[in-house]
Specification:
- This protein is α/β, with parallel strands linked by helices.
- It has twelve helices and 17 strands.
- The strands form three sheets. A nine-stranded mixed beta sheet has the order 16-15-14-13-9-12-11-10-17. A six-stranded parallel beta sheet has the order 5-4-3-6-7-8, sandwiched between helices.
- Strand 7 (about 170), helix 7 and strand 8 form a beta-alpha-beta unit.
- The longest helix is centred in the last third of the chain and has 20 residues, at about 385-405.
- The two termini are about 40 Å apart.
- The relative contact order is 0.12.
- It binds NADPH dihydro-nicotinamide-adenine-dinucleotide phosphate.
- NADPH dihydro-nicotinamide-adenine-dinucleotide phosphate binds next to helix 3.
Length: about 425
């Protein structure tokens, strides 16, 4: 009996058993199941494919299917450095969804935690390293790239160590705590001929990318303004984010950077003027060292004005909008790990309409890891290289400078689009 016949007979038997007491006619109808095609998938060039992908639903929408997976020996091996919340709750699980990367080592200052995690991911204990083990990490050929996920002030030293050990580096945002540190990191990776990518996951997120495409294609008419707000209420005042020496600054460094980078990547332009105000409740014990809220505007060469806000002291707020003279496109939950929604509000054929534009929702961390893996394998500059993070550091410094002086800070005009980015991400 072939497999398909077996499956069909099996399902008929289950239905029969479940229908105890049913009439012989019901049993008879199960025997007459139609010969519907079973889609059990095919292995093509070592990759699993389902031919029916997207074709079973109206419009053939891309509903996913299995990853276009590479065999282990073709994947880029990653070590994760710093096993905190983001690493353990989001990044490590994403290795279950990647297509071109694999998790091969852990680098941690907390061996007991690392051992638990290594066991969970089926990794031998010899693949656990401490921060002082770079001589051994250097010789571990299973590690081609290291993902740095520690507090911001530690990024510079760690990236320099990774580059010196001959490893490519994916570094969390904010890249560093100053533009001088960021410039060191770019230089060190260039000198070591290693790639450096900053983990700006929004630039790989489909809804945000579609909004940027609408803006750049002129679908919203002439662009006039960008608006964005990322705020949240911080808890424990003792956490590293509330200490300037580890965080670099407050809301702006940690979450305001999404509004800043999101605006730059949506427009592709660099600002020529910045004006900022900082508002901090100094009686709040959370804000002894870092700022609470920052409100700033950025003027771009095309005349677009961005009005951006960030705060560590209000109910969770994550929205981002692009305002043209013929349409408004806006993202709800713009900066979340998932759950983005994109809306287009315009007037077409004399009628005002608001439409939701649906997009796939792949795991943002898996998408980012796969992008970097493909950049390494194909020797391509990442879309968000070190230079992209360095530019944000310079602009953050300009924002603080404007807030401190009460003056508008003028910046050199930069020609062309996307001057700090690599080529658009390739399909993976
Ligand atoms: P956590 O505090 O949860 O974890 C940081 C980890 O870094 C610790 O668990 C520890 O790992 C290691 N570490 C090393 N030295 C120190 C130190 N002196 N103090 C504290 N931790 C130390 O931070 P997050 O995971 O939330 O953030 C890490 C980075 O990721 C930051 O740069 C942050 O901005 C970024 N981030 C990015 C997000 C995104 O969406 N892209 C979201 C959240 C954070 P170990 O015990 O293994 O040594």
């Amino acid at each position: 009996m072939d497999r398909r016949t077996f499956i069909k007979r099996g399902s008929a038997l289950v239905a029969l058993t479940g229908a105890l007491g049913a009439t012989g006619d019901a049993a008879q109808s199960q025997e007459n199941l139609p010969e519907a095609p079973f889609d059990t998938g095919q292995v093509v060039d070592g990759k699993l494919r389902f031919g029916s992908e997207g074709s079973l639903i109206e419009g053939g929408a891309p509903f996913g299917g299995p990853p276009n997976q590479d065999p282990p020996d073709k994947r880029i091996g990653f070590a994760v450095l710093g096993l905190g919340r983001l690493a353990t709750e989001n990044i490590m699980p994403a290795f279950g969804r990647v297509k071109h990367a694999k998790l091969t080592a852990l680098i941690s200052g907390t061996p007991e935690k690392a051992r638990v995690l290594a066991a969970q991911y089926g990794m031998p204990e010899k693949q656990i390293y401490g921060y002082g083990d770079f001589d051994r990490i250097q010789n571990d050929s299973s590690i081609q790239a290291i993902y740095v996920v520690t507090p911001n002030a530690l990024h510079r030293e760690e990236v320099l160590k990774c580059a010196a050990a001959g490893k490519h580096v994916l570094c969390e945002k904010p890249m560093a705590t100053s533009s001088a540190e960021a410039a060191d990191m770019v230089r060190a990776c260039a000198q070591a001929n290693r790639k450096l990518m900053i983990a700006y996951r929004m630039q790989y997120q489909p809804h945000a990318r579609e909004l940027a495409r609408m803006v750049r294609s002129g679908e919203l008419g002439t662009m006039k303004a960008i608006s964005g707000f990322f705020g949240q209420n911080m808890g424990d005042p003792a956490q590293w984010r509330m200490h300037k020496s580890l965080a670099g600054g407050g809301a702006l460094y940690d979450i305001g950077i999404y509004c800043l980078n999101g605006t730059r990547f949506t427009l592709g332009e660099e600002p020529v003027e910045i004006n900022a105000r900082i508002v901090t409740n100094l009686n709040d014990p959370r804000f002894k060292e870092v700022e609470e809220s920052v409100y700033w505007t950025m003027l771009f060469p095309s005349g677009v004005m961005a009005t951006l806000s960030t705060s560590y002291a209000l109910h969770s707020t994550m929205h981002f909008g692009a305002h043209g003279d013929r349409g408004l496109a806006y993202l709800q939950n713009a900066f979340g790990y998932s759950g983005q929604r994109l809306f287009l509000d315009n007037t077409a054929n004399g009628r005002h309409a608001v439409a939701e534009i649906s997009q796939g929702e792949p795991d943002q961390f898996a998408t980012e890891l796969d992008h970097f893996a493909l950049c390494i394998r194909n020797d391509v500059k990442p879309r968000t290289p070190g230079e992209e993070g360095l530019q944000d550091m310079k602009l953050i410094e300009a924002i603080y400078q404007s807030a401190a002086s009460g003056q508008t800070v003028k910046l050199p005009r930069v020609e062309g689009l996307d001057p700090t980015r690599g080529p658009k991400p390739m399909a993976n």
